[in-house]
Amino acid sequence: MNPRQLYEDFIHGNSIEDNDLLEGIRFFKKLANDLCKCGPVFKLAFKETNSVYIRLHEFAVARNLKKPGEL
Question: Domain map of the chain by residue range?
Answer without folding.
Answer: 3-7+16-62
